[in-house]
Hints:
The chain has eight helices and eleven strands. It has 266 residues and is of the alpha+beta class.
Amino acid sequence: MSHLLREHAPVTTAGWELLDSEARERLSPALAARRLVDFSGPLGWEHSATNLGRVEDLSGAPGDGVEAKQRRVLALVELRVPFAISRAELEAGDRGAEDADLAPLDEAARRIAIAENAAVFHGWKAAGISGVLESSPYDAIELGEDCERYPRHVAKAVEALLDAGVAGPHGLALGSDVYARVLETSEHGGYPLLEHLREILSGPIVWAPGVEGAGVLSMRGGDFLFESGEDLSIGYSDHDAESVRLYLQESFSFRVATPEAAVALT
């Protein structure tokens, strides 16, 4: 039996396929961090900690003349977002309805993607996670409201990385507000701003809900490390005559190996 307890849910095989497909469709574009950092796993629900390769001295070893050290690890965090789906809508999906109302699942996917992105880019102190942007040693570059100046700011960020010996390609994470502004803007002569930014970066530009401002980071590998225990999965809680209560869940750790491989844009 899986710890997700899906076998106990009043959901048919076709119903689970519908829910999983909807979750993938909603999560894929929103999980910005995974498209820009190194992703390893999934290593399974039972995987609990990431090896940091470091130790700390321990006092009071049980024996004279004995030195003691303890291995340091980064514990994985678990994220869970509950939601409920109408049993009538699941039954409609089983009959082949193309318009089954899965809005609660869509909202759960939005919430957990925002939480993951925020943890990776801005950190999560209580979980021992330092974020990509908060770890950067460079002065943040102010974007301002004039989108036609964005290429200059992004080029400045790329130059700072190259000066520090941080090779590309470089990716750009844009918070929702900034991303919308970029999409709506064209430079003089109608040349799309998005294309100009891509030429500067030689890497992807990613919509990153949950990120405040933006960030330029190297994608050469080895700088930002995301370790997945259980990848995003739907589990079962309970049900009544009207609805089935489910949840989206994942476990992961994140660490910044090279702080100087990213520049924050505010």
